[in-house]
Design a protein that fits this description.
The protein is an all-alpha fold. The protein contains twelve helices and two strands; from the N terminus they run αββααααααααααα.
Length: 266
């Protein structure tokens, strides 16, 4: 038993090192004034990289836009995915297979191909080159995954617990917040992380629909990669990598605030 525990700890340490060491080296690069081979540590330190990115007004604005855009996409994904996933998991109706196929088409068809057709529609309704137009196009590659993840959670949970709670007199709101949602938290966390990563990495879709008016960090990454120094690129990469973790901590805090871990009476 102790040997298995030691092996698990060793494996966890090895996996953690695969993530921690590269990030640590990247952070050292962002503050390194001079760092030459074969020295293990920089011979001098400088905060030029971090000062450069935060003094750039376009980057600060892109950071705020990215924050707002990703958070909006996450919330809309959850609001739309829950009722759709529940119906697909528990209901049988005519045309269900067709609806499933339509919902999951963006997974099989490149999102860029669909976006080119949607661009004309967005131009006609006035959503092209706007924040909400970019939000809508980011829903295209993210919503199908969220529905699949949440649907799997509903199928694992089953419908018996909700039926029994409602039989005992609990309202639908009470059942959702005290029975269904707490047990679906693993699926919710997985969906949030996946949506965050996909939305943050959208360069082509944001460029096409945003038209240069909606600028996110993904759009600034390539110009920085071509022209900036290694210090600036390292600092920018760390900032970009920290965004998914920031969203996870934010959502986790909201979950703990709204759904305290306690036993509730129905």
């Amino acid at each position: 038993m102790k040997q298995e525990a030691a092996q698990h700890k060793l494996l966890l340490l090895a996996l953690s090192s695969c993530f921690v060491i590269p990030v640590l080296l990247l952070f050292l690069q962002s503050i390194a004034g001079e760092w030459r081979f074969p020295h293990l540590l920089p011979s001098s330190f400088s905060y030029y990289g971090w000062e450069s990115i935060f003094q750039d007004a376009s980057l600060v604005s892109a950071l705020w836009t990215t924050w707002s855009l990703t958070l909006t996409v996450i919330l809309l994904n959850l609001l739309l995915a829950f009722p759709a996933a529940k119906q697909l998991a528990f209901s049988s109706f005519r045309g269900k297979e067709m609806i499933e196929t339509v919902l999951f088409l963006p997974i099989f068809i490149p999102a860029l191909a669909l976006a080119m057709g949607l661009h004309l529609t967005l131009l006609r309704i006035g959503l092209a080159s706007t924040f909400w137009g970019v939000v809508l196009i980011h829903m295209l590659p993210t919503l199908p995954y969220t529905i699949r993840i949440v649907r799997a959670g509903f199928e694992r949970l089953g419908s018996q617990q909700e039926s029994q709670a409602q039989t005992l007199g609990a309202s639908q709101v009470h059942v959702f917040f005290h029975i269904t949602l707490p047990q679906l938290l693993p699926s919710v966390r997985a969906a949030i992380f996946l949506v965050t990563v996909i939305s943050l990495s959208q360069y082509a879709l944001t460029t096409m629909i945003g038209g240069g008016e909606v600028v996110t960090l993904a759009l600034l990454y390539f110009p920085f990669a071509e022209s900036a120094s290694t210090q600036v690129m390292a600092a920018f990469s760390i900032l970009f990598a920290l965004l998914p973790l920031t969203f996870l901590f934010l959502i986790e805090g909201l979950i703990r605030l709204c759904l305290p871990y306690r036993v509730s009476k129905i």
